[in-house]
Task: structure prediction
Amino acid sequence: MKQEIKSLENKVVKEIDLDKKIFGVEIKNEIIHRMIRYQLAKKRSGNHKTKGISEISGTTRKPFKQKGTGSARQGSRRSPQMRGGAVIFGPQVRSHAHKLPKRIRSLALKMALSNKLKEGKLKVISDFKISKPKTSFLTSKLAKMEIDSALFIDGKDVEKNFENALRNIPKTDFLPIAGLNVYDIIRRNFLIISEKALMGINERFKNE
Result:
């Protein structure tokens, strides 16, 4: 699978072969969907909580006598039917994370990469080196490449000038190779990876 490597000036530098086992995988939407649900579930804070009857402040005395009032009997003002009382079976602090086999997580990432290549929205850039960390300077380069929404992936050590320049551009993300994930790939229109990042991807899947 041939792929052009371009510079930030949108000029072709050379051609390379992409690994079919990584970038030529059959795409199954249900696998990608499972992975996105897994990622979003892990991101949830899970700190929602209501008070149980033991946590409500107030007296344990009966609000009024058992008989003779014409009202239903009540044992406590902290009961759930009373104003300001407890909530029964309400949400409690917990983790929303669930398990997903490593094989499925790995397959989903390959499918996300393959999907971007199939759509023609995967670009490989020789490097992200720019002379100055200016947003306007980088915006003009992205405009020439017709990139409006993109996830940029660099190697282990990211280019700081590029990262700082990209920070104020909407609908863009910049991550090191360790941060490559399905959700961020899918939520952006383009996937732009550096040559160092491509080497990292090949290294990540070399034993699979």
Q: What stands out?
A: Residues 102-118 form the longest helix (17 residues).
